[in-house]
Specification:
This protein is α+β, with helices and mostly antiparallel strands. It contains eleven helices and 13 strands. It has helices at residues 4-17, 22-29, 33-46, 67-79, 85-95, 104-113, 185-199, 223-230, 247-260, 268-284, 296-299; strands at 144-149, 153-154, 160-168, 174-180, 204-207, 234-237, 321-324, 330-333, 336-339, 348-355, 358-363, 366-372, 377-380. β8 (330-333) and β9 form a beta hairpin. α5 crosses α6 (104-113). The chain is elongated and about 95 Å long.
């Protein structure tokens, strides 16, 4: 007859075989998953000695946490060293809902007792101005995506790493975290193409004012954002110097920096593997307090807007004046030339009469500014409210 230690060793061997899931093996041995994780963790840290029975002296305090529960909390902290008690509890509840897990404060005490507590840094909160809240319209998946380059750093071999990140504003789902050699159109556009093919199209993409997302031309358009508009995606630029307007994405960047770039990996290939592991955990395991303890994957759904790489021709209403932008980034107006921007070269723009000698200037549904035909100048439109429903 097999001893208890032999049965536990057999349990560990079947878990490590990869042929069955943890839940399946636990059912076969008629133990809870939390007990299974306990024995697996003890074997990995102590070997065969960890499978022997330990003393189970009666607890003097009826409220004291069971040993196996405390072991599981310590084990969870080892897997997620940057998570606090609230996240750890939510994560444990998802994995073993049948266990009566202690409160976050008790979990915090357990972590401190084991020397695993991390000092919390308090950040001063800045009161937001109501009319500057950038993401209040992100009431569902794929209404707004956020895109940015996290600050670059060097891998241990000296190679530069510029991580491009794309996330869904509503669910926080991290759609892309990709190390690129340079943050330019050549490396960036194929990654957006791959993301659109995998997840579909968003209604809007929120970006900053730097290349390759924007330019200093009228309307702030770049080759990349012009491509988005032709796909029916609205570029939403934050105000210069206001990264808080993309706050959810910036918060993800802080987590990414802490958990996936410190320390940096040996080279770009190794760094990308770390990014891939981070993205998988961030989307499917990491609970978010703002999501009531759910993960981004719990809320995210693929877009119903299917990506078609064939771009449709931009068409304007019949009462618009239409001009094609020349190689020099200009349009002809009567006998004069008016500068629009090099990014729009060979593209048609529409002019809508809005007053005496004043014309609103559009590229598709995106307003560029107001053209004064007396001054032969286009006054750029402010960052806010740049769109209008124009037939395409």
């Amino acid at each position: 007859m097999a001893s208890v230690e032999d049965e536990r060793l057999q349990f560990v061997e079947e878990c490590k075989s990869g042929e069955w899931s943890m839940a399946e093996v636990c059912r076969r041995f008629e133990i809870s998953r939390i007990t299974g994780y306990k024995w697996l963790s003890r074997f990995e840290t102590e070997g065969l000695a960890g499978l022997k029975d330990r003393s189970h002296a009666p607890h003097s305090n009826p409220r004291q946490v069971l040993e196996e529960v405390e072991d599981a909390i310590v084990e969870a902290r080892g897997q997620h060293p940057h998570w606090g008690p609230v996240k750890l509890r939510s994560w444990l509840e998802r994995r073993a809902p049948e266990v009566n897990w202690p409160s976050p404060s008790t979990i915090g005490e357990i972590l401190r007792r084991h020397g695993l507590a991390v000092a919390h840094t308090h950040h001063k909160r800045v009161k937001a101005t109501p009319n500057q809240e950038p993401l209040k319209h992100a009431q569902g998946p794929n209404l707004v995506w956020c895109a940015d380059f996290k600050g670059w750093f060097r891998c241990l071999d000296g190679s530069r790493c510029d991580p491009l990140t794309i996330s869904d504003a509503y669910s926080r789902f991290l759609l892309r975290c990709q190390a690129v050699k340079r943050p330019d159109l050549f490396y960036t556009k194929p990654l957006f193409d791959a993301t659109f093919r995998e997840f579909g199209l968003p209604d809007a993409i929120r970006i900053d004012n730097g290349p390759p997302f924007a330019s200093v031309g009228i309307g702030g358009l770049s080759e990349l954002s012009i491509w988005w508009i032709k796909l029916g995606i609205r570029p939403e630029r934050i105000q210069p110097g206001k990264p808080s307007e993309n706050g959810r994405h910036e918060r993800m960047h802080r987590t990414l920096k802490m958990e996936a770039t410190q320390p940096p990996q040996s080279n770009l290939r190794a760094q990308q593997k770390t990014f891939d592991r981070f993205r998988l955990e961030f989307n499917h395991e990491r609970p978010h307090q703002a999501l009531q303890g759910k993960t981004p994957a719990d809320l995210y759904q693929l877009s119903t807007r299917v990506y078609n790489s064939r771009l449709q021709e931009v068409v304007y209403p019949p009462d618009f004046e239409v001009r094609i932008v020349s190689n020099g980034g200009q349009i002809r107006w009567h006998h004069s030339r008016v500068f629009v921007g090099h990014a729009l070269t060979h593209e048609p723009i529409g002019l809508e009469l809005c007053g005496d000698g004043k014309w609103r200037v559009w590229f598709s549904f995106y307003e560029l500014g107001v053209f004064d035909e007396k001054k032969l100048l286009i006054q750029p439109k402010p960052t806010r409210n740049l769109t209008k429903a124009v037939a395409q």
